[in-house]
Every structure is written in structure tokens, then in C-alpha cells.
Amino acid sequence: MRKHLFFLAALGLVALAGAAVAQTFSDGFLYKPGTTIPGYTEQRGDWQATGVAVQSQAGVSYQELTYDKIKDTDCCVEVLAVYDTATPGLMYTGPLLRYSGAGSTASYFMVKVQDNGTPRDGWDYYFTYYYDGVSMKGMGLSSPISPPTKQARVRLQVLDQGASVLFQVFIDTDLDGKWNITNSTTTTTYGLGQSGLIGINGYQNAIADDLKFFDACLWLTATPQIGTLVKLAGRGQGGLNYQGACSFANTGISLGSGRKAPLALDSLFFLSLSSPGIFQNFSGTTAVSGDFTMGIKIPSLPALAGLTIYTSAITYNRLGVAEICPDVEVTFVP
User: Per DSSP, what are the bridge partners of residue 181?
Assistant: First the structure.
């Protein structure tokens, strides 16, 4: 109960951990228009701030923009990809992470949404890669986006798992708050153990906005079938307390210092803090490796089929919130 109270208290405080490097970060790119983007490095391409977003350079192919203050290994990055309808053509953008090195010889993971061919009608394909400093290594998850879209929310989560790297992609193609592409998960040995910067990739005149960073990871380990115990695996720093919660929405709960827990203060949120028989192991201590596991015992009620809830977790210590996991969309199936 004490841990539950801590979580509730944390939602209203300006966390003392807010000055730490390890924290959730978001940027709406509300900078003065021009080719200087404060806090970022143009690794390739002459990026520009538009006043409400950032845009890669027209006429230039491979481009990367990295944020100077965050370097991580196991993490999650998200960006809003906006198609430039004023000048349609071949273009792409999306998040990148574990950016190590500089310029054309750097290495990193990336996912991009792309206008891949005629008619020039928006994002109609997504591609996943690890760039090793020489060439793009496909991750085997590329697929069409149908119907094409002018805006898409694109998320990439990468974390080490023993001798391999878990690589996950989620894409919201209609901006309704739910992922349309959710089954893009694979493992690889590329980039194992690599730490690096977060940022945005670009090609030609693509537009990107609303960069978000989560410094802990959370993911479903199985299909959330009615009548079963579905488990979620998490990864943060080792030896910290953690607390999970669920809600019907992911609109965000302010934690202060610009950070938000990606949940909502609704009836399910409070139920998930007080019903350990259903929301199992939603509090505890992370292992030395940083790993933790939570479970949702889904009632055997057919009426739950199709219901979507959101799950997230924080890690914390005596100073306050240490890390924030991304929201995991859990849709119950028969």
C-alpha cells in the first residue's frame, strides 16, 4: 500500500530526479524558424526549424538529427512523421536510437515511414534498419501502409536480451491514439550492447514533430486473451522500486519537470493500484539486470473482447521518479 501511495504522490510532484539525465523527454520543436535547432546536432543534412516542427533538407538523401543530452541503450523513442504536401515526392522520416559515432560512419537503429512510389499520396510504406556505418541492414519488418497517410505516429523500442537485441515497431497511421501496426517485432545481433544518442532520420523534405523518449522499456510477452494471465516484461535500472498501473486512456499524467506518465487518472487507474489479484506483481523491485515482470489476470468475460486498456510503469527511489516506461496498448481478444 505504501508503494501505491508513493505512486499517487509522484503524480503531483516536481520530481527531484527531474534534473537527472535518465528521464522521459519530449520536444514539440517550438523553436525560432531557421537552420539552428537548439540542443541538437545535424549529423547529416541542413535541418531547419519551422516554428512548430523540424524538416530535413530538400535535395539531400540520408540525414540524421540527434539530441545532444540523451544517450541510452535500452529505451523507446517516438516521433510524429508529417508528409510535406506542399512538395510531394520521395521522402521519409522516423525515430532513431543508439546513434554512435558521427556523420556517414555512425551506426544506429531506425524505422522510417516513406512515400515509396507513385502516386505521391503520402506515407505508403515503412522500413526498419540498422545502419552499421557502411550500409543499411534490413530488419525484415518492412511492409506497406494501407491506406496511405499524411501523418503517422511512429515508435521504436530497442533493448538487449542476452545475446540478441529485441527490436519493436509501432505505428499509428490515423492518429486515433491506437496502433494500427503492432506486430512488428524481431530480434537481431546488430548493435548488441551499443549505447548512443536518440533522434530523427530524414530523406529529402520530410517533416517531424513531437519527439518523445522513454528511458525504460515495457512490452507484452503474449496475446492478451480473455481468461488468461497475460504478462508484461519491463526493463529499467537495476535495484530500483517499480510501480505499474493501467488506465482506459493514455493522455498523460504530469510528473513535473516536463515529464509525463502515459496514463490517465481514471477509474481503472485506481483499480489497478488496489486489486493485486487481477493486476499481479504491479509493484516490487527490479532485478540487478533491471528486469521486472507484471501480469494482468483477465477475467473470463466475453464482453471484454475488443476492449483496449493501457499499461505503464515507473521506477523510483527515495529521491523520486527515476524512469518512465512507455504505454503498452493491451486489447483483449476472445
Answer: 171
- The residue type found at 273 is L
The answer as to CATH 2.60.120.560 being correct for domain 25-214 is: yes
The C-alpha atoms of residue 136 and residue 148 are separated, in whole angstroms, by: 24
Q: What is the pLDDT of residues 279-325, one digit of tens each?
A: 999 999 999 999 999 999 999 999 999 999 999 999 999 888 999 99
Question: Comparing C-alpha atoms, which of 141, 150, 89, 88 is closest to residue 110?
Answer: 141
pLDDT in tens, 34-77: 999 999 999 999 999 999 999 999 988 899 999 999 999 999 99
Provide the sign of the torsion angle of the four alpha carbons 132, 134, 138, 142, taken in this order: positive
Candidate CATH numbers 2.60.40.10, 3.40.50.2300, 3.30.710.10, 1.10.10.10; the one for domain 2-20+217-331:
2.60.40.10
Measured CA to CA, the distance from residue 252 to residue 273 in angstroms comes to: 17
**Domain ranges across the chain:** 2-20+217-331, 25-214
For residues 235 and 292, give the distance between their C-alpha atoms in angstroms, rounded to a whole number. Answer: 6
* Distances from the Cα of 202 to the Cα of 60, 110, 125, angstroms: 9, 10, 15
